[in-house]
Specification:
The complex is a heterodimer. Chain A is mainly alpha-helical. Chain A is built from 15 helices and no strands. In chain A, helix 2 runs antiparallel to helix 4 and helix 4 packs across helix 13. The relative contact order of chain A is 0.16. The longest helix of chain B has 18 residues. The chains are: A mainly alpha, B alpha/beta. Chain B: One of its GO terms (cellular component) is plasma membrane.
Amino acid sequence: MRARTTPVASLARRVRSRAARRLGALGALAVLVAVADLLAGRSLDPGAVLEVLRGGGDPTARHVVLHLRLPRLLVALGAGAALGLAGLVLQSALRNPLAGPEVTGVTPGAVLGAVTATGLGFAGWESPAAVCAAATVGGFTGAGLLWLLAGRDRGDPAGTAVHGVLVSAVLGGLTAMVLLVAPGELGSVVQWLVGSTEGRVWAHWHLLWPWLLVWAAAVWLLAGPLTLLRLGDEPAAAAGLATGRARALALLCAVALTAGAVSSVGALGFVGLLVPHLAVALFGADLRYALPGAALTGAVVVCGADALAQVLSRHLAGWLDADRLTLPVGALTTCLGAGLLLVVVRRAPDRTF
Amino acid sequence: MDLTEPPGISVEGADFGYPGRPVLRDVDLRVPPGELTALVGLNGCGKSTLLRLVAGLLRPDRGRVLLGGDDLARLGRRAAARRVALLHQSAPAVPGMTVRQLVRQGRYAQRGPLGMLRDGEDAAVRRALADTGVASWADRPVDALSGGERQRVRLAMALAQDTRVLLLDEPTTYLDLRHQLEVLQTVVRLRAERGMTVVMVLHDLGHAARFAERVVALRDGRIVADGAPKEVVTPAFLAEVLDVAGRVGEDPHGGWPVCYPDHPLTAST
């Protein structure tokens, strides 16, 4: 029998553990895609970017890298992490492999909030705080609607999924109505609907990171209850978990994280739905590891997609001879995500998770 | 080994029902400390509901449930789960979990939400893995196990709760005869080793008569028979409790009653 371990020995074992190695590898990958994202833009060649990073470069290059590309990169990483976490929390709390912020009314609600604020002129694209507040209110409204409608079916994956699709459809319809009434700056509004990291500046990042930090920490403290909720309500309750309270807290965190992501990059499709599957495949269902894993995976996915979208934009612009063409990262995640979702559904047709 | 007496169970005048559908009516049940009791009855007679009342997962509409003198209604969920563990009849699949991780989840009641974040497993997990004979495959994924192996793992998770009261809801369902006997003998052995009060719902009257010290029968939400297997398991018992005509003999070696069911008496309702 093993002797009682000291904290140091326990830490050493943790560092050696497979989960820790994978987290490390993902972290390295995140750095890699971050650098790629920084280099991928169109207006500067990689050499000039590296020049700026070494502290040199002309003022224009410095502005582009330090005030446009860097905040955009950080916002992409942060939003990806938030969506990955929110998705894993939702899937665990609702015991539903097809739950995600997109299909539980949270993202559509946040988009409605942001579009209403922007479209009706309460807040401009350039005043992120007001948009952020509106998206948060919208996200909670969407989740609240689902909570009320699902009623007694809250523990039942199928019932929740059906009600979630219903709520999302209604909120999407309301968003369309707002757009018809107040077309306003349609260009920027479309960015909410598809999801884009274009034009994100330090103001967005300064709003995003404290919010993300607080809620990610809260979520990690809930790792124990969330792991239990994945076992089903009755087994979790028998093991001593007050399931109702745990689920309500988890949903609160998921909505807050989603609202933060949506208010900074819009409705990035499929990230919150698919990243959790990757994270559980890599880290298992012990959420002490899978939650940080989902955050890192989400960051890597969104940041990587952003880099890819920029490279594709450059080539597409060349082919189509359209100078100002930009491919929003949300279009890319949605296309790639749909393909991946098909794989997930085909691979595990008869499983709850 | 804990030599103190485990808590007994007493259910006092408990009613329970859903709107328009009473399930339990005026149930009185006293299980003395350390006894192994089997609950039997037809499908829907309320035996699983009674088990949930004793586990504190459901609250009686009237009456009360005491564990060793403490009213369950006054205990929080975690405090209740430190006193009583329940093995469910069936549990959903849990992809992505190893045996050790799943069994560790049984420690929630003792450790609490923040305690679960700490790494390292405690003695109770090791003991539960060893006691159920699953220690050698502790690092295999639960999903890769057979039904019988999985049931032992779930028993280990309940044991990791380290309670003195253990409830089992049809622990042998879906298992072949060999694994049924394996699970029941493990329960009997651990009850003696750990000093636990055990109540289990069993469908197989043969198992109940052989392994339990006492058989309690429910019919339509009421207790209709209660006593040692030899006293209560009779042809009349088969008819009144299970709606079956049959004969009852005696095992030539062990002396426990053996049922020879013949045919159902009435169409089930």
